[in-house]
Structure formats: structure tokens, C-alpha cells
TrEMBL record, chain A:
Taxonomy, superkingdom: Bacteria
PROSITE patterns in alphabetical order: ABC_TM1
SUPFAM superfamilies to which the protein is assigned, alphabetical: MetI-like
Protein name listed in UniProt: ABC transporter permease
Native organism: Pseudosulfitobacter koreensis
Family: Belongs to the binding-protein-dependent transport system permease family.
Entry-linked InterPro entries: MetI-like, MetI-like_sf
Domain (ABC transmembrane type-1) ranges: 56-242
Entry-linked Pfam families: BPD_transp_1
Sequence intervals crossing the membrane: 60-83, 90-116, 122-145, 176-197, 217-241
Membrane topology reported for the UniProt record: Multi-pass membrane protein
TrEMBL record, chain B:
Xref: Pfam families: ABC_tran (PF00005)
Protein name: ABC transporter ATP-binding protein
Matching PROSITE patterns: ABC_TRANSPORTER_1 (PS00211), ABC_TRANSPORTER_2 (PS50893)
Protein family according to the UniProt entry: Belongs to the ABC transporter superfamily.
GO MF entry, a single one: ATP binding
InterPro entries linked: AAA+_ATPase (IPR003593), ABC_transporter-like_ATP-bd (IPR003439), ABC_transporter-like_CS (IPR017871), ABC_transporter_ATP-bind (IPR050166), P-loop_NTPase (IPR027417)
């Protein structure tokens, strides 16, 4: 019953959303170039399914690769900022400034820096846009660790690394996964940004661009929906990882 | 009996923006092996600094701290600590929380032996059957019991406690005093207990050290001349009442007030 409810409720919500969309288009009698309707989409998927598969895969792996880099780099940066006040004071303004730069402006910069390296540029952008929340949350998690937690191991002569591995790291995991949920969406946006903005791109973003060039409006909407589905898959993959590694932080509803 | 803990003429000041802030100014404490030393004093008088000194987590500006015939200059494995906040690790079960110090102190000890040792202690404090629970599933008193087990699981020669019962309600606190008394009878540690509860200091201590207000020095030492297997009733007898009166007067002096005033 519980499982049925968990699946049925979101599915019903999605169906209701599609019905309203379809109704809006039909009632207003919008042509395709204003707004395609859900009933136009299956034809688009059927016709271009191969492009969708290839594009989805390209978008997916580059997002995940960029996010992976962001996790490694964000963790390292967070550790440095969490354990050293001086490094925190030094790096914070730089990080905030970098994060404030609209990432769209970086696309041509990267394109010139690494000419023709499309995959590399895309992964790099996914990484650049998504490491910030991870670094900040890990840094804050580590720097706000209560001193008693450190003292119980330090009084036994444990090394800094042991204290990090046994206490600081696991204790920061809930914050880390909170940030990862934000970062996964950001990385996805970063990937698509490069795919859409740079010429001769790959992935779903490039498919969207070519649909626009060819005035294939149903295809454009089909790509948007495919992007949404991919985003949902990525997000829930992170949620599943969180359940496994930081499930202890979730309190039972009482 | 030799003194296991020897604190001689310790002075210490913290550096602050407005200059040095002296917290300890001539501290002398001796605790014979196996004895229980309770330390009381006005709040903010440097009691917690004392625990960090004994644990070797910091060095005093002046004076010496000796443990078991060796001068303390860095942390050592023969110390156990418990705080007011039980600081259990939420992602570990109670059993694995208790085992934690053994992972540091005795890395080669087989898991089976660690479990046996932890279960033995959990049984002593009345937590049998809770080994697999998470800390968040336990009450405050139970968490503190688990924290005490963790502090002594590696058989430390010194147990340092910084107001471990301070955040508990009165009934739970008295239960834990008795648990502490029973643990003492079975486990061979020498204890330093920082507290602001005079009844606690008399019930558990073999001696009660009264610190003066900041900067703290040893102001008064009370020998608690009561039997080892005391019960809570002892606190309501005349002898304990006299001791509590003496301690209250000493605290007033430490606070800079007149002991004759109300």
C-alpha cells in the first residue's frame, strides 16, 4: 500500500500536468511554433530516437564526469578551508567572486583556451559550475565540528588524519549530500550550457539547437522533456547514494 | 600509596585580544592511585582547562603535570574522557561507539574481543540489549552511560570527566552517580571529576578540591571520610551535611562573598 502510494502519487501528478498542458494548447488553438503539445512528442521521439539515445548518453557522462571532479576538488578545498583559518580567509573572497561570474560568459573563454576540445570543455564547465556548494558545505561542516568530538580521539593520541577519517568526514556527510543535490543540478546546467552555446556541440543541448535551426518545434519540446527526465534520474541517483552513506542522519517520523 | 596524578604549581593564561587572561594561578592537586578526586569551583574558573591539561591536550605556561610518574607533554593512550555532551557518533551503533577508543589504542585487537569488552561494560551500566541502537534512539541518561563506557573501554589509568552529569535531570543524575560508584568497584581507574554539584562531589569523591575564582588556585581540600560503598542516604546524614556546609562556605569565599552572609 505504502509503495503503491509512493509510485501512484507522482505518476498521477505528472499525468495531470500533461493533461493541463495538452488542454491549454487545444483550447487556445496554439500552433506548433508557439507551443507544441504532449501529443506531438511521441512522433518526435519515434523519428529521432537514435539521436536521443546518443545525445542523452553524451550529456549524462559529461555531467557525471564534471560532477565527479567537483566532488574530489570540492572535498579537498573544503578540507583545506575547514582545517585552516588562514586558508579560509584567503580563499573565500576568490571563491565567492568566481562563483558570481555568470558561467555563460566562460563558454567562449574556455572555447578559446582549449580550442576544439569539446568534451573536455563541457566536463570542465560542469565541474566549474558545481564545485562551489560542495567546497563551502564541507568547509563549514569541518570548521564547526565541536571540539569535544576531536578531543575524544586526540586525547588518545590519534593523528589528524585518523580524526578526519573516523569523525570529521562521516559527520560532514549529511551536509555534503545536501550540497551534492544542488551541485548535480548545476553540473547538468553547465553541460547543457556548453552544448547549446558552442557550435558543433554534442549531447541533448546540440540536438535542441539543431531542432531550433530546423524549426522543428515538437523536437525542441521533446528535448526539454528528455532533459527534465535526465535531471530527475541524476537527482534521485544522489538521493539513493545519500540513503546508503548518510541514512543515519534521517530521523524516523514520529 | 603513590600519587598517580600530580599537578604542581600550574599557571596558565590564555592569549586574548586585550592581553593575557590568566585562568590558573598556582594549582596543586595530588590524587593517589585508584582514588576519586572531585573538583568544584565557581563557574568560569578554569575547571575545563584543568581537564585539558591532565589529558595532555595542552601544556601549561608554568608548572608540571605528572601522570603515573611521567611528565605529561602530549596526549597518551592511558587517558579516558567524558564530557557534559556525550558526543556519541550518530552514524555508529552504541556498541561501535563504545569500541571506538580500542580502534585507536589497540588496532590489532580482534573484533571479537572488542565486542566482548564493550558488552561487558554496557551490561555494567544497564545498557544490555541496546548494543545495536543508534544514539538518537536513546534517552539523555542512556547516552551518557554509553559515553562513560566509551571513556573506560580501553582500561585507562585515568578517567577525566568534565561535568558529565550536568545536563541530566536530578533522578537520572542520582542513578548515574550509583552507576559510577559501581563501575569504580570493578574498573581500576583513578578519576578526576569536574562538577558544580556539591552533593555529587561528596557522594563520588574521596577528596574534593575547591578552586578559587579566576584565576584559579587550590583553595581548599576536603577529605571525604565516608565508606566506599556509600548510598544516596549518606547524603542526608549529619556527616555529609557538615561537609556540604564546609564546601558551600568555601565556594562563597571563592566567589569573593562573605561565608557568614546568607
Amino acid at each position: 500500500m505504502e509503495i503503491l502510494r509512493k509510485i501512484a502519487v507522482p505518476v498521477m501528478a505528472i499525468l495531470a500536468f500533461l493533461a493541463v498542458w495538452e488542454a491549454l494548447v487545444q483550447i487556445n488553438d496554439w500552433p506548433n511554433y508557439v507551443m507544441a503539445s504532449p501529443s506531438d512528442l511521441p512522433a518526435a521521439y519515434a523519428q529521432f530516437w537514435e539521436l536521443f539515445l546518443v545525445g542523452s548518453w553524451q550529456t549524462l557522462w559529461r555531467t557525471v564526469a564534471g560532477l565527479g571532479l567537483a566532488v574530489v576538488f570540492g572535498l579537498l578545498l573544503g578540507m583545506v578551508m575547514g582545517f585552516s583559518r588562514i586558508m579560509r580567509d584567503a580563499l573565500y573572497p576568490l571563491l565567492v567572486g568566481f562563483n558570481a561570474i555568470p558561467k555563460a560568459t566562460l563558454v567562449p573563454v574556455l572555447a578559446l583556451l582549449f580550442i576544439g576540445q569539446h568534451d573536455f570543455n563541457t566536463v570542465l564547465m560542469a565541474f566549474l559550475i558545481s564545485f562551489f556548494p560542495i567546497a563551502v558545505s564541507v568547509g563549514i561542516g569541518l570548521s564547526t565540528l565541536e571540539p569535544e568530538y576531536r578531543d575524544i580521539l586526540r586525547s588518545l593520541g590519534a593523528s589528524r588524519f585518523t580524526i578526519f577519517r573516523k569523525i570529521a568526514l562521516p559527520k560532514t556527510l549529511p551536509e555534503f549530500f545536501g550540497a551534492l543535490k544542488v551541485s548535480v543540478t548545476l553540473a547538468f546546467i553547465g553541460t547543457n550550457l556548453v552544448e547549446i552555446v558552442s557550435p558543433h556541440g554534442r549531447g541533448l543541448g546540440a540536438l535542441f539547437l539543431s531542432a531550433q535551426t530546423n524549426s522543428n518545434y515538437p523536437l525542441m519540446f521533446a528535448v526539454l522533456i528528455a532533459l527534465a527526465v535526465l535531471g530527475i534520474v541524476l537527482y534521485y541517483a544522489v538521493v539513493a547514494l545519500e540513503r546508503i552513506f548518510a541514512g543515519w542522519a534521517e530521523r524516523q517520523a514520529t | 600509596m603513590k600519587n598517580l596524578i600530580e599537578i604542581k604549581g600550574v599557571r596558565h593564561a590564555y592569549k586574548t585580544r586585550t592581553g593575557p587572561l590568566p585562568v590558573l594561578d598556582g594549582l596543586d592537586i595530588s590524587v593517589p592511585e585508584g582514588e576519586f578526586c572531585a573538583v568544584v569551583g565557581p563557574s568560569g574558573c578554569g575547571k575545563s582547562t584543568l581537564t585539558r591539561l591532565v589529558a595532555g591536550l595542552m601544556k601549561p605556561d608554568e608548572g608540571e603535570v605528572w601522570l603515573d610518574g611521567k611528565k605529561v607533554s602530549s596526549p597518551r593512550k592511558t587517558v579516558g574522557m567524558a564530557f557534559q555532551n556525550p558526543v556519541l557518533l550518530e552514524w555508529r551503533t552504541i556498541l561501535d561507539n563504545v569500541i571506538l577508543p580500542l580502534e585507536i589504542v589497540a588496532p590489532s585487537m580482534p573484533r571479537r574481543d572488542r565486542v566482548v569488552r564493550a558488552e561487558e561494560l554496557l551490561e555494567m551500566v544497564g545498557l544490555s540489549g541496546f548494543e545495536g541502537k543508534r544514539p538518537s534512539e536513546l534517552s539523555g541518561g542512556m547516552r551518557q552511560r554509553a559515553s562513560l563506557c566509551r571513556a573506560i573501554v580501553h582500561k585507562p589509568s585515568v578517567l577525566i570527566m568534565d561535568e558529565p552529569f550536568g545536563a541530566l535531570d536530578n533522578f537520572t543524575r542520582e542513578d548515574l552517580w550509583q552507576t559510577m560508584r559501581d563501575l569504580r568497584a570493578k574498573e581500576p581507574f583513578t578519576a578526576v571529576l569536574i562538577t558544580h554539584d556539591l552533593r555529587e562531589s561528596v557522594f563520588l569523591g574521596d577528596q574534593v578540591v575547591v578552586l578559587s575564582g579566576r584565576p584559579a588556585r587550590t583553595q581548599y581540600i576536603l577529605d571525604v571520610d565516608l565508606p566506599q560503598d556509600r548510598t544516596i542516604d549518606v547524603l542526608y546524614a549529619q556527616k555529609a551535611a557538615d561537609m556540604l556546609q564546609t564546601l558551600r562556605d568555601q565556594i562563597k569565599i571563592a566567589q569573593g562573598r562573605d561565608p557568614e552572609a546568607a
